Amino acid sequence: MNADQLADVVAGVSDPEIDVGLRDLGVLRSVSLTDGRIRVHLTPTRLSCPAVGEIARRVRAALAEAAPGHGIEVVWERGAWQPAAVTAAGRDALRRGGYRVAGTAPRCPYCDSEDVEQAGRFGGAVCKVPYDCRGCGSTFDVIGTAGCNAMLPTPVRGGSR
Amino acid sequence: MPHIPTDSDVYEVFAQSGHGTALSHVGSIVSPRPDAAWHLAKETYGRRDDLVKLWVVRRTDMIVSSAGDRDLLAAKTRMPYRQPGFPTARRRDRSAAPPAVAAPPERRDSGLTERRDDAREPRLTDLWLALADDLFVLGNRLGERIVDYIDLEEALAVGSIGQEALAHAGTILVLCGFDQPAVDARFFDRAQAQWQVSRVVERLTDWPSLVAGGLVIAAAVAVLAERTAEAEPGAEWLSAISAIRDEQLVHLDHWRRWARALAAWPETRTEFARAYAEVTECAGDMFGARPQSQGQGVPAAAPPAGPALAVTLHERLAVLVGDNGGPGSRLPDGPRTRTWGVGGSALADSLSRGRAIRDHYAPGVFS
User: Fold this and answer.
1) Exposure winner among B6, B101, B318, B323, fewest CB in 10 A?
2) ipTM
3) Is B77 helix (H, G, I), strand (E, B) or coil?
């Protein structure tokens, strides 16, 4: 297998929390193959992502099955994730799962309304910012970094006292 | 074991005596025939009072618990922190507990002795390593408080900020050239006497002080990250440093809201003013790290962080703290030097808890 094929193997590995592939989520940066050694460059959506261990384990398992006998090295590029790295397919998969990606004006993933309100600055996971939709009453999360969070236009409702 | 009773002529009687009351079990009767049971129950339990409902069920049609079912009946999913008395009991237990022993076990000392190399000027790396120590303790102190909150939003905020403080501490060490085992050894196997935390850390005990301390530490990390990014634009660690700065600015904004709120409420105004004054008075040493023997990188080629740099950073910190924490800051006019062995019970607690948790993991989890 060449490096492109190996990259496709890694792309097929899903995120442990949301059912979306690592390439579509923008987590996969590159895969290289030199002298029988595979180097996978990944980036967590957030520095404190608790899933890095599980993601690395899944990547190693998938590569060991697809291309046995190679050394595998997983390199985490810290802070390199950008919302723009999420592919169109990734955005669709996230929307179906009830998520939006930071960087554009957030719309409700369920009813597509733009009448949404940020419900706080910290969500159930460090990479998520919670939102409420005033159109259909749903709650959803926007996935993004702190830099993107600062970019989001909607003011925080109530705040934290 | 739950079982089906065998006494087929016994009936259980349930009655409701008023609209505002519940249907409840009132007793049992013996009846030879099912059709007579209801009337017998009416005679027995409904003679004096008006009843709204009367239900009768044959005992053999029920599944009932036995005397030995206490274990089966005990709640399995009852989470202590969801019980109404938990926060109060926890605060009481904490305040009654003796302070953690300051000296950690010597067997943990895995050759990480710091050379006290005061002959050399501190570098940016030394400043980062010292702030990583502060972030580690802050993250631990915040982590302890997650369950104290009835308010979900605040629990999420404190949990996220604590988690990120720990992650930033670890990331800083990686940027300074530590691999993962070395990161773990530095945080969990180093004697307290070899930590170089700020004097702010020993204040991180009550909530108003944590707000003030969180604010000061977030501001200091943001200031140092900004300065580091200026030192070597285009460096490969820049994205990580920028992410740390951006995330700490979000934390700083959270603490700013808390500081404003605590300073505004009449009930908390005095206590917060005292905590804010005490914490800022201790915060002169944010950039006062002494040279440490460990750590390279961030950025290896950067100039020594001499006295002039410490003054610049300190001035930026003073502006940021005043802007966010409000008036009443007692930050010293100039930077102060750090020393080893401070941190008090806040550091000792964080170390002993971390070690206790790691001791209970299966062998090989931390390899």
Assistant:
1) B6
2) 0.84
3) coil
